[in-house]
Amino acid sequence: MRLDDYDAILCDLDGCLISGNVVLPGARALLRRAGVRLTILSNNSTDTPETLSARLAEMGLEVPPGRIVLAGTAAIDHLAARPGARVRLFASPALRVYAAAAGLVEERGAPTHVLLAKDLSYGYAELQETIALLSRGARLVVANPDVSYPGPDGLPVPETGSCLAAILSVLPGLDHDVVGKPEPGLYRSALARYPVATRVLAIGDNPRTDAAGARRLGLDFALVGAEAARWRSVADFLAASDALAEGPAGAVRRG
Known about the structure:
Blueprint: E1 8-11, E2 18-19, E3 22-23, H1 27-34, E4 38-42, H2 49-58, E5 68-70, H3 71-80, E6 86-90, H4 93-101, E7 105-106, E8 113-116, H5 124-135, E9 139-142, E10 148-150, E11 156-158, H6 160-170, E12 176-178, H7 184-191, E13 200-204, H8 207-216, E14 220-223, H9 234-246
Parallel strand pairs: 1-4, 1-13, 4-5, 6-7, 6-8, 8-9, 9-12, 13-14
Antiparallel strand pairs: 2-3, 10-11
């Protein structure tokens, strides 16, 4: 599996390129070597492509908004495309601004939908409100099913899926929509940016979302990070790719 063999590279964010405000080993090298072939494809449900691009720039990682696809904004786009949708948003301030710009109408009393994204203010009162709205017939849309992602100290950070688990503990069997990985929609949105790509590589650190989503679309996949048996970081993957490119006795392989 050599990086140079691929026309398009879809890379996860947390656990691959960054952890909190820490840039992970190999991140800068991957962005430099992949160039315009790389799109960040993330279950991030806090940022917009613009806010994430700005945050990454502060960390020395240059990725324009046009090469960022995120579950949170994709979920809002999904709802904004539904005529007459009235939505109770549990989301970050950045996603609320994005939703308003997309023309999405927020409704707290009798919404048609409830959007669950990563909301740091989501607590018991919000859980109770969510249960009540869903029990009255609102449809639940979840930005992503991840229960956690690795923090910079190695400890798990709760994600949107942990709140979903709390909801389902009260309303087991609740029918709901998931927008982010492993669902194929987010992948297809990213792949639409590569109309002539024939070989696509996905890189991620979560076998339950990143790997499962890539497998559904038949994409080559590289698992990196704490759960990976071969590559503990993007740097390890790049080193293995270089070794394959050089071949035996340092001879550079072609084709």
